[in-house]
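USER: For my understanding, would you kindly supply a protein sequence with its structure tokens?

ASSISTANT:
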Amino acid sequence: MRDLLGGQPPDWPGFVASWDDLHLDRYMADGGKYRRRRHALFLAPATGAIVRQPHGPHWQGLAYNPLNGGVERW
């Protein structure tokens, strides 16, 4: 990843640490407590900066995710 980014970004340690603070996925159709997740929206144009967008739901249809699809995951 460092090679792709041209070195280590200054906020890299915070990004790495965020993987140790994932929230329980409350949208598991089977009621499972085994998946942790975090979701954010970003705009990544072909040119220009990557910009975080306002919080919004993650969506997967039932055809793509038969077990846990069909709901807005906030």
